Amino acid sequence: MHRTVKISPQKTPGNDRLFQPRYDSSLPIGKYSSLQTRKKYHGFTLIEVMVALTIIAISLGALLSTSGTQARSAGYLKHKTLAHWVAVNELTQIRIAKEFPDVGDKKGETTMANNDWYWIRTTKATEDENARQITFTVYSDKERTQNITSLIGYANRDAPILTTQ
Fold first, then answer.
1. CA–CA separation, 11 vs 121, rounded Å?
2. Is the pLDDT at 13 greater than 50, yes or no?
3. 71, 88, 119, 151: least CB-packed within 10 angstroms?
4. CA–CA dist 163, 165 (Å, integer)
């Protein structure tokens, strides 16, 4: 049984411009009838979906790579900051103790933030005989091969205080 759709204007309440299909059983429906040619397909083709998924996959891959790099950088910066604090603490201890270190190298070890830090203190003479240049180089390994940070500071010999009466 063949049917076709005959489009004729039909008024609907509230909208005079709307056309609604009316089925006419007297006309045959064939391969190229007006109903089939006017039918609109909604949605995406397989190619469009595959292209969209490819773009999303590439974008997510780049995003994950960036996130991994950022996480590694944050860990490195935390490690470097702690090493710097170790060097600052060691220099501050020398100043508080009013120590005037001898020229040369000294090796030491400090624990901070559940990590063992290894350092070398290099003391050099300056033009002023009452001052010394102190360089702390902090390492994360006992063999002292992985230099993390260096800090240069100065220590002064206590000069007698002159008073007048």
1. 96
2. yes
3. 71
4. 7
